[in-house]
Every structure is written in structure tokens, then in C-alpha cells.
């Protein structure tokens, strides 16, 4: 049995003998920037206010990534190499460099438990939205509304239309789909369980988690393969199974990797696990290590990631044009109110995006959508950047990679933060939409299926791209954040104030006029 010290950890700082996640994060980002901008890389290492100023350096990753088609690959290689050398793995009192985790001795053999769903229903897809069950024409109408209002990009809308036109794609009986963090609230488990998928579910050994997973599988038409550290009889009832299944991604990295590599089927690997704070960096590194190992052993494996909209991205030129147009077309009252609030707040609210295009060496110009929310912290940004780097590099090396921006979603992990909850409640003031989890689940599960089935998708390495960063541009559902006419993090705090006040103060109706 592992003890509390086992698993993947940030290292102790040799100078303070304490763990410094900021120091590790700074060195990883500095190394990623080192070959494309040595000066800013060195500046980062001396940064005294990392938690406040980290957006500067994450934006630098993107701006330098845009400039040449080779830079995103260089940045990804440098950043991932440094990350792999920046963590430790502990087991039974021994400390290993994380890069050597797959070769540690005495790797335990995992047992596989198979559970089959009881439903005979054929695969079906619809989108739950505001109390409706959108299918067919009603779904197509809503997709067009989202596109017209700038909630989703045209490529995302087109992917959903393709899924509506190809219901046969939802039969996943020939696919084996690995879910890291299977019970994730924003994950696709519920839909895969209705689409005849072969699901390998990896999640913590927790009775509540496995009760949710097993109940979901039993009510669907899919087949579940679950890991266990102990022998489980085939006739073990569900109420006992939920206490015997599961594996910890942070403590059993080599076991999971070897178990998956031995699977005879082609695997679709989805990195959807989320943990709070610095654990999110560690679980991202754990998933990255496992997915990389499995991909080396099984080169036909595909990768899947879901990006957060509250990050910084390279975006097509037309997105910048749309944002500028929104700024210029603001109503008189919005101009007056936003200017007044900006002055009173000493320009902390409603900062202009100051959008400028950057020309790449491929001859195309791209902009930057800086939607980082400082309150989410540098660890969250680093965890998601590691996933982007792996996706970029794997796709460059010829692997099938689905990576799409999912909308801001009112999951428990978001709404338990009062500031983020209020910001999303008031985000409609800026034509930004936060989706309910059931809507995001349906949309993003379908998008993954689209990327696996549509040969024209950029997830397919044979589909040409003019720039590696276009992998993240395609299929984006950012909820409108890319097109907000202000620097998003200077508008969302006001959205939070509006969200808090919306049902309590008389300014509610007056502020609502900003949208008209």
C-alpha cells in the first residue's frame, strides 16, 4: 500500500528546504521561452510578483509562438523537457527523478474489471439547453444563434452541424476510450455510456466516485473496463464493486501506463482529470507521462484535451476584427459608463484590448485573445499549458490529437469560487455565456467524436495546417470571451460586481441597458 508521501511531487527548494510551486513554474516557462526570447526568459527568473504578473509571460509564449511556424514546436519541446526534469516521484522511501518513473522496480499488476451496460437503446445525441432538448432543426437554429452572437467560432458551429448530419458516427462500439478523471463533471462519460463505447475509466478509489461511474454505465449501452489493485470476482455485486475499483493518478503512474500499454486495442486517451491548486499541475504531469508512454508503445493511440477559455491563445485575424468592431459599436451609455468606471477604478476596469496583429513567417497574420483570469492562478495556467504543449508536439509528430476550447461552465469547481461564480452570473452583460455542465458535456463529447471520425478535422495529422497554433483555434467554443471588446480580466471583475448585485440592487435594470 502507498503511504502519504508516495507519488508525484514538486521538489524541495534546496535553499529553503520548502516546496515552491512558483519557483518550479517560473523555471518551466523560462525554459520554454529561452530559445525564442532569451531576454524575457531571464527577466522571468527574476520576477518578484509571479502570481500577479504571470500573464505577461504566458502571453509572451503565444506572441513568440505566432512569429514562426517552428517556434511553437521549440517552445513545446523546451517546456516539456524542463517539466519532466522538475518533479520527483516517491515510493516506499525512495526518491526518483520523474523522468525515470516508468522504470522504477516492483510495479504492481493491475486487475481489470469488466461491466456491461444494461440498455439496448441505439446511440442518440441531443443538447440539453435551458430546459430544452435540442435536436435536428432546433439544434441547428441554436448553433446559428451562438455563431451569430460570437459565442462560438464558425469552425465549432460547422463541427456540430457535421455531427447532426452524421448520427452513425455516434456508434462507438469499435473504439476504446480512456478517461483520465472519468467522473469529471465536465467530462464525456454520460454520453459515451449511451454510444456503445468501450470505456476505460481511471479515477480515484472513492466509493462516491465509483457509484456514479457504475450507475452511469449500468443505465447505458457501453462497456466499462475498470482498474483494481485487488482481485475482484466476476460476480461481485455493484454495491461492493464501488469499494474495490479505482487508482490514484498521482501515486500509480507506472502501473496505469503499463496496464494501458498492454491493452490489445487502439486507444483514444482523454486528459480530463482536474484537481485544485498545485495538484492540477501534478495530475497534468501524471497524465502527460502516461499518455506519452502509451503513445510510444502504441503509436496509433490518439490524444484528447479540453482547453479552458480563460487562457491566452493565438486567434484568427477575423476574431480581432470582431472584437474591435464590438468596441467601436458600443452604445453611448456603455461608452460613458465604462469610461467613468475605468477612471474611478484607476484604469483597473475596462482596459482596451489594444489588439495588434502579428505576422507569422507563413505570411498570415494572427491576433492574441488574452482571457487569462489572474484569480485562477499560475498553477492552473501551467497545468493547461503543459497539455497544449503536448498536443502541439504530438500533432507535429504525426499523432491524432483532438484539442478543443470548451466554454466556461458552471461546474462545482468553478462555482465554489464566489468571485468566478458571480463573474459568470454577470457575464451576459458583455455577451459572454457560461454553459451549464450538461450542455458542455453534450457539445464537447460530440466534438471529440467529430475529431475522431471526420477526416477533414485538424485533429487528423494528414489535414494540413498553416501554423501549429491553428490546432487550438479550430473548433473553439469560448463562450464569447475571445470577442469581448475589453481585456477580459478587467471586464469580468465588473461582471462579478454586476452578478452579485443583479437581484439585490436597483442598478440592475440600468446596467442591463449596457447590452442594448
Structural overview:
The protein has 516 residues and is α/β, with parallel strands linked by helices. It has one domain: NAD(P)-binding Rossmann-like Domain (Rossmann fold), CATH 3.40.50.720. It is 44% helix and 13% strand. The protein is built from 20 helices and 15 strands. Strands 4-9-8-7-10-11-15 form a seven-stranded mixed beta sheet, with helices on both faces. It has a three-stranded antiparallel beta sheet with strand order 1-2-3. A three-stranded antiparallel beta sheet has the order 12-14-13. Helix 1 (21-34) runs parallel beside helix 3 and helix 5 (136-148) runs antiparallel to helix 6. It is globular. The N and C termini lie far apart (61 Å).
Keyphrases for this structure?
alpha/beta; 15 strands; Rossmann fold; globular; 516 residues; three-stranded antiparallel beta sheet
Summarize this structure briefly.
The chain has 516 residues and is an alpha/beta fold. It has helices at 21-34, 38-45, 50-67, 71-84, 136-148, 154-165, 189-192, 207-218, 238-241, 253-261, 278-297, 317-328, 332-344, 377-396, 412-415, 418-426, 437-453, 470-473, 488-501, 507-512; strands spanning 7-9, 88-91, 94-97, 111-116, 127-129, 132-134, 176-180, 198-202, 223-228, 267-271, 302-307, 312-316, 358-359, 365-370, 401-405. Helices cover 44% and strands 13% of the residues.
Instruction: Please give the order of strands in the largest beta sheet.
Output: 4-9-8-7-10-11-15
The proportion of strand residues reads: 5-15%
Please write the CATH class name: Alpha Beta
Mean pLDDT: 89
CATH architecture: 3-Layer(aba) Sandwich
Low-confidence stretches: 506-516
Q: Which structural class matches the secondary elements?
A: alpha/beta
Amino acid at each position: 500500500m502507498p503511504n502519504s508521501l508516495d507519488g508525484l511531487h514538486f521538489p524541495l527548494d534546496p535553499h529553503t528546504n520548502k516546496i515552491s510551486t512558483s519557483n518550479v513554474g517560473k523555471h518551466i516557462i523560462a525554459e520554454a521561452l529561452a530559445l525564442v526570447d532569451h531576454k524575457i526568459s531571464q527577466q522571468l527568473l527574476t520576477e518578484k510578483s509571479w502570481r500577479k504578473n504571470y500573464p505577461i509571460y504566458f502571453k509572451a509564449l503565444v506572441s513568440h509562438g505566432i512569429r514562426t511556424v517552428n517556434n511553437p514546436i521549440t517552445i513545446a519541446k523546451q517546456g516539456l523537457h524542463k517539466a519532466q526534469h522538475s518533479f520527483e516521484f516517491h515510493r516506499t522511501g525512495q526518491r526518483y527523478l520523474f523522468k525515470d518513473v516508468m522504470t522504477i522496480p516492483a510495479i504492481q499488476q493491475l486487475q481489470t474489471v469488466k461491466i456491461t451496460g444494461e440498455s439496448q437503446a441505439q446511440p442518440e445525441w441531443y443538447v440539453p439547453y435551458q430546459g430544452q432538448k435540442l435536436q435536428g432543426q432546433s439544434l441547428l437554429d441554436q448553433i446559428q444563434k451562438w455563431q451569430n452572437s460570437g459565442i462560438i467560432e464558425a469552425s465549432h458551429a460547422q463541427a456540430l452541424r457535421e455531427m447532426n448530419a452524421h448520427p452513425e458516427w455516434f456508434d462507438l462500439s469499435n473504439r476504446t476510450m480512456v478517461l483520465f478523471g472519468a467522473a469529471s463533471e465536465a467530462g464525456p462519460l454520460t454520453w459515451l455510456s449511451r454510444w456503445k463505447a468501450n470505456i476505460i475509466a481511471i479515477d480515484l478509489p472513492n466509493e462516491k466516485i465509483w457509484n456514479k461511474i457504475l450507475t452511469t454505465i449500468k443505465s447505458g449501452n457501453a462497456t466499462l473496463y475498470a482498474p483494481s489493485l485487488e482481485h475482484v470476482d466476476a460476480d461481485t455485486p455493484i454495491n461492493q464493486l464501488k469499494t474495490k475499483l479505482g487508482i490514484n493518478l498521482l501515486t500509480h503512474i507506472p502501473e496505469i501506463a503499463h496496464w494501458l500499454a498492454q491493452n490489445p486495442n487502439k486507444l483514444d486517451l482523454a486528459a480530463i482529470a482536474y484537481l485544485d491548486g498545485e495538484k492540477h499541475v501534478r495530475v497534468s504531469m501524471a497524465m502527460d507521462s502516461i499518455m506519452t508512454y502509451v503513445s510510444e508503445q502504441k503509436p496509433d493511440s490518439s490524444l484528447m484535451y479540453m482547453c479552458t477559455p480563460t487562457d491566452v491563445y493565438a486567434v484568427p485575424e477575423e476574431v480581432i476584427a470582431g472584437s474591435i468592431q464590438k468596441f467601436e459599436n458600443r452604445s453611448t451609455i456603455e461608452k460613458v459608463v465604462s469610461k467613468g468606471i475605468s477612471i474611478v477604478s484607476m484604469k483597473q476596469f475596462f482596459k482596451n484590448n489594444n489588439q495588434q496583429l502579428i505576422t507569422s513567417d507563413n505570411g498570415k497574420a494572427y491576433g492574441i485573445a488574452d482571457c487569462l483570469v489572474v484569480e485562477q492562478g499560475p498553477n492552473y495556467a501551467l497545468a493547461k499549458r503543459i497539455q497544449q504543449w503536448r498536443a502541439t508536439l504530438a500533432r507535429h509528430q504525426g499523432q491524432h490529437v483532438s484539442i478543443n476550447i470548451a466554454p466556461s461552465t458552471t461546474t462545482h469547481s468553478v462555482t465554489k469560487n464566489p468571485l468566478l461564480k458571480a463573474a459568470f452570473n454577470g457575464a451576459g452583460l458583455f455577451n459572454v455565456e457560461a454553459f451549464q455542465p450538461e450542455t458542455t458535456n453534450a457539445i464537447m463529447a460530440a466534438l471529440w467524436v467529430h475529431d475522431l471520425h471526420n477526416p477533414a478535422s485538424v485533429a487528423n495529422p494528414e489535414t494540413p495546417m498553416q501554423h501549429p497554433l491553428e490546432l487550438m483555434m479550430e473548433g473553439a467554443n469560448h463562450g464569447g470571451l475571445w470577442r469581448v471588446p475589453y481585456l477580459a480580466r478587467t471586464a469580468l471583475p465588473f461582471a462579478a460586481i454586476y452578478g452579485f448585485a443583479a437581484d439585490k440592487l436597483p442598478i440592475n435594470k440600468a446596467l442591463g441597458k449596457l447590452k442594448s
